[in-house]
């Protein structure tokens, strides 16, 4: 896995649950850009809720299960 910045390490301590999806607003202390970088590095999974886009609510994140390969 890639090296992490301090922001990314802190975000991973906040997103601890592999079974639940979290929006940016639910995570509170994490920026969308940081979460997207963790998706690119293979630590998080990202989906978008159906319907109209609502900032900080429409994009959801969760930890990837360790046995899943990173998506590129």
Assembly state of the chains shown = single chain
The portion of residues assigned to helices is 25-40%
Describe the strand arrangement of the main beta sheet, using strand numbers: 1-3-2
Main CATH class:
Mainly Alpha
- Reported by name, the CATH topology is Arc Repressor Mutant, subunit A
Number of domains: 1
Name the CATH architecture.
Orthogonal Bundle
The helix/strand series, from N terminus to C terminus, equals HEHHEE
Separation of the first and last Cα atoms: 13 Å
Rg (C-alpha, Å): 12 Å
What is the number of E strands?
3
Mean pLDDT rating:
85
Q: What is the count of DSSP helices, taking H or I runs of 4+ residues?
A: 3
Give the structural class: alpha+beta
